[in-house]
Amino acid sequence: MTVVAPEHAMTPVYEFPDSLTSVPTHYCPGCTHGIAHRLIAEVIDELAAKERTIGVASVGCSVFACRYFDVDFGQAPHGRAPAMATGIKRVAPEALVFTYQGDGDLASIGAAEILHAAVRGENITVFFINNAIYGMTGGQMAPTTLVGQKTASSPAGRSLVGQGAPLRVSELLAQVDGAAFVVRRSLHDVVQIRRAKKAIRRAFEVQEQGLGFSMVELLSSCPTNWGLKPDAALDFIRDEMVPAFPLGDFKVPEAETAGAAGAGTADSSAAGADAAGSAVAGRARRG
Amino acid sequence: MARELLKGNVAFAEAAVRAGCEAYFGYPITPQTEALEHLSTRMPELGRTFVQAESEVAAINMVYGAAAAGVRTMTSSSGPGTSLMMEGLSYLAGSEVPAVVVDVMRGGPGLGNIAPAQSDYLQMVKGGGHGDYRQIVLAPSTVQELIDHTVLAFDLADRYRIVTVVLADGSLGQMMEGAELPPMRHLRLPGERPAWALTGAIMREPNLVSSIHLDPDEEEAFNRHLQAKYAEIAAAEVRFEEYRLEGARVAVVAFGTTARLAKTAITAARAEGLAVGLFRPITLWPYPEVQLRALVKRVDAMLVVEMNTGQMVEDVQRIVAERVPVRFFGRTGGVMPMPEEILEELRRSAHEAEAAHQEEVSA
Amino acid sequence: MKGTVTVDEPRCKGCALCIPVCPKGLLRLADARFNARGVHPVELIDPSSECTGCQLCATMCPEAAIAVYRAVRVRA
């Protein structure tokens, strides 16, 4: 770090997280992968879990996540991170094990692995970065690409005919009994980022409590492959992605749905600011 | 330990338990399913990990995770399943994590059948996954060897941080035979996991288990490192058996179950006065190249017998380099070569060798 | 002076996401200089000591390049 702290009268209230390495990320300017990394690292710091955290990186832009987190890391084949994390967690149950996967990795090639990790109630935490596109390979259609969204492999825009509608993974996994905590958050503004961090913390706590599979889906930006400036990309999340992928809590532990004080409930009421999000969250809770 | 009547699949599964396997991940497939079933009881009763995975793709990646976390781990399968594992095996090789895979080969290609075959030789020995990598391949021919090789596979895998394959076949997996199981070994304590493993970065820099080297020079250097390791293994770990090769004019070259069938044929041939013996590679990689090359000077002909349409014979031809004639006899599709058929082939080889010898003398 | 921020300039990619979230409008791209990445890094221009150390900029930063400080309250 080349930063010089200001005058001695000042005390730090926010500093570079311990659980990140100083390696500069390869992410494009304004890409919210960096925010997701930062939040996860901040929560690992808060839980004082750096020395017992084991991450599993995936394939895609997040392939180098292993270089950016200052914790033990494995690097799985495309889509297989939940299987690799299963192997790790089963023989290191005291470790805090998480995967970090994009939408191509998790929702397309790794659809079987994520589904069955949830079915087994595998006690791992999954961070699912949904930016509706394949970033690393240059902007091809993902399973979460929006209808009509133009990509390098859907130049006329994703069509319902032949390409289908975007896959809503959180809603899907919430149907699985083994899933203990499944929520969707967004990284498009400061309020949403703070909610995302609370959810990340809760997901790790669910794992620490041995409650089963936990996943936080994070709506994220890809300014480069969307062809938008960083700030316009955040607007795209808010205006285009959130309506297609409503924010909310799709599955939270029983006690939290019944009571009013649980972290999950607090999160979902916060997400209620988003009309669509609260409607789906409400349905999920009642269901 | 006393000798007992053991089914091959149960024998290797129990051998793995006793060798200190802490985690098994697998998917049901005939003809190896009894191994998975045995471990579904044994592993939990010992407080160890057993997971029936959603696919062989997932199973090998669970093995990857457990191996990366520093425990002895294994999977077992058969052709259609091992095909699905090729991606994972390449990553295991590229990350240098140790693991054991037992392949109980069946007839193919495609769904094929569930009868014994040796047609995964190329897949396992040459590497069915992408990239320049090797794995140690052991070829047992009895249930006792299946047990011993499973234990050895764990030791070799750990010693060299490499995947070790026990290449059995449906006959060996299904047969019952008297054999002796090894004593139970102590499990590795959590503090005894290897220094490179993912155990949580306590009082050390974080560990990374990965196969990515984006810089071509770095990737090349890593490949050179792998090749140096493979050369070390090739120099130290070759295993083979010579059977009745004293004075032999014709050598049968065969592995696994086929070698066993060949022994019966050789006994019959010797009774007919034919000077024949058997050269049996036990490690298919590293292949006993030096020993086979030396054999060229001692015999007049070779007969390669396999339960496939000719896979190992390519290695034999390469090593022999046309210095003696190499015949091939194979049955495939789940059909086993009968000793009488092998004997008939041996008579032909012996006859040809004699003719060639006479020609040489008269010339 | 209630608060201030420092920018780890070599890390900054100049994405400017922090700029609009500052309630006082105290951040801007340093037009006059480039960092080693060849981008104008963000800088704090706070001549009247308006920064409160609210952390909104740091919350938004994808590079974790912003550190935030607040004045220590000293009891009399």
Short description:
Chain A has helices at 33-46, 65-68, 81-91, 103-109, 111-119, 160-163, 169-174, 190-208, 223-226, 230-244, 254-258, 263-271, 275-286, and strands spanning 10-14, 53-57, 72-75, 96-102, 125-130, 179-186, 213-219, 248-251.
Shape of chain C: globular
Q: What does the largest sheet of chain A look like?
A: 7 strands, mixed
Number of helices of chain A: 13
Radius of gyration of chain A: 18 Å
Which structural class should the secondary elements of chain C be placed in?
Answer: mainly beta
- CATH fold-level label of chain C: Alpha-Beta Plaits
Question: Any idea of the CATH class of chain C?
Answer: Alpha Beta
For the report, how would you describe the main beta sheet of chain C? Answer: 2 strands, antiparallel
Q: Which architecture of chain C per CATH?
A: 2-Layer Sandwich
CATH superfamily of chain A: Thiamin diphosphate (ThDP)-binding fold, Pyr/PP domains
CATH class of chain A: Alpha Beta
What is the topological layout?
The complex is a heterotrimer of chains A (287), B (363) and C (76).
Chain A: E1 10-14, H1 33-46, E2 53-57, H2 65-68, E3 72-75, H3 81-91, E4 96-102, H4 103-109, H5 111-119, E5 125-130, H6 160-163, H7 169-174, E6 179-186, H8 190-208, E7 213-219, H9 223-226, H10 230-244, E8 248-251, H11 254-258, H12 263-271, H13 275-286
Helix pairs in contact in A: 1-8, 4-5, 8-12
Chain B: E1 3-7, H1 8-18, E2 23-26, H2 33-45, E3 49-52, H3 56-68, E4 73-77, H4 79-95, E5 99-105, H5 121-127, E6 136-138, H6 143-160, E7 163-169, H7 170-174, E8 176-180, E9 208-209, H8 216-236, E10 240-243, E11 250-253, H9 256-271, E12 276-281, E13 283-285, H10 289-295, E14 301-306, H11 312-320, E15 326-330, H12 339-362
Parallel strand pairs in B: 2-3, 2-4, 4-5, 5-7, 6-7, 11-12, 11-14, 14-15
Antiparallel strand pairs in B: 1-8, 6-13, 10-12
Helix pairs in contact in B: 1-2, 1-6, 3-4, 9-12
Chain C: E1 3-7, E2 27-29, E3 42-44, H1 56-60, E4 66-71
Antiparallel strand pairs in C: 1-4, 2-3
